[in-house]
Amino acid sequence: MNAPLRTALTLAGRGVPVLPLRVGKVPFGNCPACRDNECGGRPNMKTPGPCDCPRPCHAWAAATTDPDVVTGAGWSTAWKQAAAVAYHPGGTGLTVVDLDHADAVAWARRTLPATRTVATTRGEHWIYRGAMPSVNAVRDGVDIKSTMVYARWLGPGTGTMTPLPDTVRALIVKKPSPTRPVTVAVPTGGGECRHRTPAYLERGIAMAEQRITAATSGVHATVYRTFLAVLSAHGRCGCLTDTHAARLFAAAQTKGESPRHCTDAWSNARTALGM
Known about the structure:
single chain, 275 residues, alpha+beta, 4-stranded antiparallel β-sheet, 9 helices, 10 strands
């Protein structure tokens, strides 16, 4: 039994999902049976869970705590070739702040609460209790590794692990870019619009914001469908303003949508409704 396999079994026994890494700190590639998701695993590794193939496939989603899988025949060749061990931080309720150089480490020491640290080749891993979405390059030399990614195991580290702070969660929230003015069709007919009731309109906009911010996948489609629903309900009567549109654009941009994508989705929704 080689060193990576021994380490993997120890970690798995502690409830840490593990997988082998080959030279270059990359996971073993999908086996032929899993090409194009033939095995029934999750497509593009965008949702949690291992595939049905016994071999180590789908990168982070192959991570396991099952010792029978770790030592099984499907993994034997991979461990013989493994250069290191990786683990899925989010799968064990952890977040790794990956600091890639000395300036990033200095920033963390000034900014973030102290926690367990692990030395890396060029910097440090700061590990907190609690999971969150993973995002690369939240600032120069800083990556967030938690759910749906793997991190290299470099030892237990030093210091006491502390709860995931809001200062780390805030790193992945993008500041909304200024939205372009949006012109909403105004009806030409007479009569008072029922949507001008402040509570009715406010509730609709708040629900739309919530729907966008709650999206965990398919953000583009969710934004478009939400814009379509809002315009369908409120876009023909003239009560929807640039301020309301800006709120929806801001919600979309916190999920990673660009101002251009927001404007395009809004325009496409208006076109679909004949506005």
